[in-house]
Write a structure and sequence with these properties.
- The protein has one domain.
- It is about 45% helix and about 10% strand.
- The chain contains ten helices and eight strands.
- The strands form three sheets. Strands 1-2-4-3 form a four-stranded mixed beta sheet. A two-stranded antiparallel sheet has the order 5-6.
- Helix 5 packs antiparallel against helix 6, helix 6 crosses helix 9 and helix 7 crosses helix 9.
- The radius of gyration is 19 Å and the shape is globular.
Length: about 260
């Protein structure tokens, strides 16, 4: 990576991430863009709002996050190395045990996850990775952001942009799939508690950001309400109900280390 902290334009990340997804597809490999960059790909008409919210100050993105399939990990390492991305020597000996690789390039690094995003809560992508292109689905982006127990301001802002740009409905095609999220959370009280708490927080903080118009706030709030309706009316499993009785007296999430490999 470059020693100087060069501020790269978002277009660099957009073009590089799309190029890598396309070239991987040509070789029979499946990778999908995650996080804020995935929102940017899906919401070109709201790039200005994303910029004005200032998720990372002057810098919009710092890296590229991909989800991939574990069964293709060996081929993917070769794929990225051919394109100038390398795995740090400090953890090459442990590659078989890791579910996440960090690859360094000339200007940026890539975060490569396999099968699952296993952080505060676990999101399994093995049956959902091909539902969208070149990113994971909008519903999975919402879950990726909302599963963070100690949610950051940038994740709140990203969620606001996503929900301003996309409605909640019953499909994964340019919509946040409400039934999918509701069914997933109905099995896991801890995941449900984190996601619903964070959705309520996003709605509450709409009044904080002056760059949002009254129309922005109204639309985002209504879409949060719609998603909450799907979640609230979904029948909960017996396991969910039993865990709900314990509530927050017992830790309902996993601790996530902040140190990168």
């Amino acid at each position: 990576m470059s020693k100087e902290k060069e501020i790269l334009p978002p277009e660099f990340f957009v073009e590089e991430s799309k190029r890598l997804v396309d070239e991987a597809q040509e070789e029979g490999l499946i990778i999908r863009i995650m996080g804020a960059l995935a929102i940017w790909h899906h919401s070109p008409e709201y790039h200005d709002l994303h910029r004005r919210l200032g998720r990372l100050g002057e810098q919009v993105f710092t890296d590229i996050d991909f989800m991939a399939l574990n069964k293709q990990r060996k081929q993917l390492v070769k794929f990225f190395e051919k394109r100038g991305y390398t795995i740090p020597l400090t953890y090459r000996l442990h590659l078989a045990q890791l579910n996440r690789y960090i690859l360094t390039g000339e200007k940026i690094y890539i975060d490569l996850f396999f099968d699952k995003l296993d952080m505060c809560h676990c999101i399994d992508f093995r049956k959902r990775l091909t539902l969208d292109y070149p990113t994971i689905t909008l519903a999975d982006i919402v879950l990726e952001k909302m599963q963070i127990v100690e949610i950051t301001e940038k994740d709140i802002k990203d969620t606001m942009v996503l929900l301003r740009a996309h409605d909640v409905g019953e499909t994964d095609k340019e919509m946040v799939n409400g039934p999918y999220i509701a069914k997933l959370l109905a099995k896991d009280w801890g995941f449900w508690y984190t996601v619903t708490t964070n959705l309520d927080k996003v709605k509450k903080l709409l009044s904080v950001y002056d760059v949002l118009t009254d129309e922005d706030r109204r639309i985002i709030a209504s879409r949060i309400d719609k998603l909450r309706e799907y979640i609230d009316r979904e029948p909960k499993t017996m396991g969910w109900k039993m865990r709900a009785k314990i509530g927050t007296k017992k830790k309902w999430y996993k601790e996530v280390g902040k140190q990168r490999y």
